[in-house]
DNA sequence: CATTATATTTCATTATTTGAAATATAATGT
DNA sequence: ACATTATATTTCAAATAATGAAATATAATG
């Protein structure tokens, strides 16, 4: 009957789909199943009628949904009350990959500033790969970055957004894409991919799985640069869609549809567990927490 | 942020006393301390200012108290809604020691009947010592009884009331109490104590601790009988105060003030963990749960 | 009939919570 | 001044609960 469980329940009541909710909330379907089972046991009521094909709220589930909504709303209000009591001062240092900053940072920062106008924000943007290093070196209190495959134990991560990796091709020079039977010829079409970092790992893994040796035309540091290179017709590239959407070169490239499905990027707020003791950090953390609610 | 933690917090906010709340809520002070610490960590706010001598709510604590009250009230409403959906039928068997039944049973039963009028109650009263046996033998779904010193692992207990053990003396024949220097002479004053059961254990333990061999005039089965014997002037007796208060012989005896402090009786509802799956049992369980809230 | 989509179990691991006892600290009584 | 009492907190080992990965179950779809 934890706040977290109420949130999970409510999300599921919205999607009516265990797999989708578990993905969106970053827990395994197994854990989600049992969260619901526990709620049901505690209430002594079935909340969802479910089989492999369908999930539906029972009347008791509906009553519990209203309860959850009320409690979560009251919870948000409590937070407002508490944060308005606490006028924080001092400085908060935030590091943000350029990739990560698009679309997310503004929302978060404007909420934070409203709640704590006298906290000075020290913001640095830079290479996504450096984000976690900055944290561990205590060079930044918090970072906004993509969730790596392996998060160090002393860090905690809170997802804020998700964005798929997309392949892009120049609008001019369509002949740059070479075809084999059955689709694109990945071994000959020139590729422009990141020099290092998470999306590089993902594409490398895919090529390895496919037993395919790509024709890497150019390795580039920085997603923005990749878009430029692609727009100039040097090859096809791989970037997080969120970066593409903000790019001034958006209208010079197109997204390729028939490309491998790579695991999407999960962008979120990350900090050292210990740093959460810092009230300014804690404050941003719980603001982020409310955003997903 | 569990319902249970909210209840604990709220109780503490009322008593402002860790030891008292932990006793009343049947957890160790250590656990209570850490429940509060966890709440404080989760909220990032101090809820109580405390030292060894005093406990006081902070402003944040007050805000959280209001939150707790609201949530617990909403929680009770949810239960009302759910139970009004579920019209239960069938039978519920309840065993109740005579001791235990005074004062508690009527409240509980009238609430239960209001919520589930078509459940037939099979009620049996009898010796308190048999209560747990009845449960284990599946002879009763639930019992109301005193909490024994050691509760079998497969049972769960929910406290409902507490009553001290009191010594009583006849109003007539005051000379029956013999005095030594410093107070009553426990070795010579004739005693009327229970033949067996929890209060017998308690008094035996006390005599052992005091290195004192009591003058047991009579061993009696059944607290009601003890009161009768005492009222007739046969000696002094030991009974739970709750039993005394309901006795027709109340005005023929008096409570002795300067007597050893024995651990009070904790009267409550008890059932097998597994039996909670039975919806009628579960229903009474959660009604009892609401009584203490 | 194989494949796919989906929820649930199982099992081993990890994390959390607990009680008992020790500790710390301030007030009170002698 | 010093032992005693009352009280909250820590420490430590043990018990409980929650988790993810993989296996399983089940029904729909191609």
Structure notes:
The structure is a homodimer of 293-residue chains. Chain A folds into three domains: 3-84, Winged helix-like DNA-binding domain superfamily/Winged helix DNA-binding domain (Arc Repressor Mutant, subunit A, Orthogonal Bundle); 88-161 and 266-292, D-Maltodextrin-Binding Protein, domain 2, CATH 3.40.190.10; 165-262, D-Maltodextrin-Binding Protein, domain 2 (3-Layer(aba) Sandwich), CATH 3.40.190. In chain A, 43% of the residues lie in helices and 25% in strands. The first copy, chain A, is built from eleven helices and 14 strands. Chain A has helices spanning 3-15, 18-24, 29-43, 59-85, 98-101, 105-115, 131-136, 198-210, 223-231, 241-246, 279-292; strands at 48-50, 55-57, 90-97, 119-126, 142-146, 155-163, 165-170, 179-180, 183-184, 190-194, 215-220, 236-240, 253-255, 265-272. In chain A, the strands form four sheets. A five-stranded mixed β-sheet of chain A has the order 4-3-5-14-6. In chain A, strands 11-10-12-7-13 form a five-stranded mixed β-sheet, with helices on both faces. In chain A, strand 10, helix 8 and strand 11 (215-220) form a beta-alpha-beta unit. The A-B interface holds A 1-3, 43-45, 59-60, 63-64, 67, 70-71, 74-75, 77-78, 81-82, 85-86, 279, 282-283, 286 and B 1-3, 43-45, 59-60, 63-64, 67, 70-71, 74-75, 77-78, 81-82, 85-86, 279, 282-283, 286. The structure holds a DNA duplex (30 and 30 nucleotides).
